[in-house]
Amino acid sequence: MPMSARSKYCLTFACLLITVLHGHAQADRSQARSMVISRYGIVATENPLASQTGATVLANGGNAVDAAIAANAAMGVVEPMMNGIGGDLFAIVYEAKTGKLYGLNASGWAPAGLSAEYLRKQGITEMPQSGINSVNVPGAVDGWDKLVRRFGHKKLGELLAPAIRLAEEGFPVSEITAGAWADSKTKLNKDENAAHTYLPGGRAPAVGEVFHNPDLAASLKLIAAEGRNAFYRGKIAKQIIEHSKRMGGTMNAADLADYSSEWVEPISTTYRGWTVYELPPNGQGIAALSMLNLMEQFPLGDYGFGSASALHVMIEAKKLAYADMLRYVADPKFATVPVAGMLSKDYARERAKLIDPAKANGHVESGQPPKVGPDTTYLCVVDRDGNMVSYIQSNYSSFGSGLVADGTGFALHNRGGLFSLDPTSPNLLVGHKRPLHTIIPAFMTKGDVRIAFGIMGGFNQSQAHAQFVSDIVDHKMNIQAAMEAPRFTKGTFAGNDVQIEGRIPATIVAELRKKGHEIQLRGDFSSAMGGGQAVMRDFATGVNYGASDPRKDGAAIPEPLNLKSSK
Question: In sequence order, what are the beta bridge partners of 453?
């Protein structure tokens, strides 16, 4: 019997519906956006304008290091509370042709005249977290110089040109940045120069409002023309020193002129077949590696992603790793840091026995590592040749010390706030010493795959790194899914308090509370968990991948095709 037109229509619609529903089922996933995938380079930063800057440098013949410096300079313009030339930087560079990793520590030292005794004589009993006595020598510009001289294809002046243009012409302020800016209004108003620079009309710029910074443009032009000496020996150095003197600080010409960042050998551990790299102390990266060594003693993949058992192990591992970090990590020129012992697998196995699967421990003590022989912005880049940069740069607190030297257009960081005035601490404040540092870039490898990644946010960073690695390794996520996955953070070193994002199911939160964790629920994508970026290279296929954290305003942007060079 022939089908009626209506029957044919219904059958066709049913088939179409089945196809659509099947397609939707195939597309069901927990991540909000896809990875950026390209045969050419990718730049991932916390602001699309900075990512675009780096991607354009790649298209114009720059390599990964060139793009990272250009993107960082742009970030100092468009996200000035988080980073800038008044702060420090660390970087891990992967050189594709040799397969070698290089580490750069461009963290600054305390002025020679600044010491715990000096502050105590002024009646100061706790390390200042703002103001002139929290200011170290900024290391970022010297870091740029070291990176571009060793690896760059472009001149520093060419790499700073986009940032100069953004500062002169102005840029529209992004959403999360506008919120952070407004939150810093009280701090900025304490310094006349800071208020003049960053609070035009007496207020923080709103979302979409165009902000100009001609003083910063002038400082960047000096560096573009004269190189790092403009900052450490020239006009900018004089501006910083004069401001320090006026504020009662101790920084002098030699503090700036004698400073030099240094190349360091990355440290590493293995985690279920992957090798994970961080930079050595004075950074906190060793705590991420220690966490992974502890987590490796438990079958987190079998527990399941987001389970109470997995979260409990990671939170307890954080406490143990951070107790050791706080006890031992300092400037290795001034303290003996037992790096090899802290990374010993045997040590991790013994420390892991302190993790009770049923109960949170609020009173974790540091261990005795064995003697074993010999607010911040993160960005990363991979270029078309497979060179990669894991790169982090920071003012520490929002707008750092809250101080801006006359006519410079940038905030001086407050990284000195991480020193201690306790004479028994390895981080006791001493002139020309570097403090325990929070900002850390990371890198991980397995077979033909290389991943450069980082997640900013003070002492959140090591614990966030360990969670990202676990998401990749234990739960088989891609880099975008791992960057978006709900996280926890514990900003304190004692007690059972821990912050968890609201996407963690209520049943899991209840289980954790039964184990003794004091849970503070945050938003679904909370800035308390930091914001990160990642790029990945599959050398077997020559394909690059990029990911950007929705907890920030950023984006992973691929290198545009250079049509002039096409055949």
Answer: 442, 534
Residues 378-391 have pLDDT tens digits of: 999 999 999 999 99
Dihedral of alpha carbons 276, 278, 284, 286, sign? positive
Residue among 280, 261, 281 nearest 149 (CA)? 261
What is the spatial distance between Cα 490 and Cα 46, in angstroms, rounded to a whole number? 23
- Beta strand pairing status for 497-501 and 518-522? parallel
Return the C-alpha torsion angle 236, 239, 241, 243, nearest 10.
-140
Helix, strand, coil abundance in the chain, percent, nearest 5: 40, 20, 40
Annotated active-site residue 424? The verdict is: no
Q: Which of 376, 377, 438, 489 is catalytic?
A: 376
Q: Quick check: 76 and 85 in contact, CB under 8 A?
A: yes
Q: State which amino acid sits at residue 565.
A: S
State the pairing for strand pair 267-271/274-278. antiparallel
d(CA 62, CA 68): 10
Alpha-carbon distance values, 163 to 108, 199, 532, 544, 555 (Å): 23, 20, 22, 26, 18
Q: Summarize pLDDT for 450-484 with one digit per residue, the tens.
A: 999 999 999 999 999 999 999 999 999 999 999 99
CA distance 514 to 357: 12
**pTM, to two decimals:** 0.93
Count of residues for the chain?
A: 567
Half-sphere exposure of 435 (CA within 13 A, CB side): 27
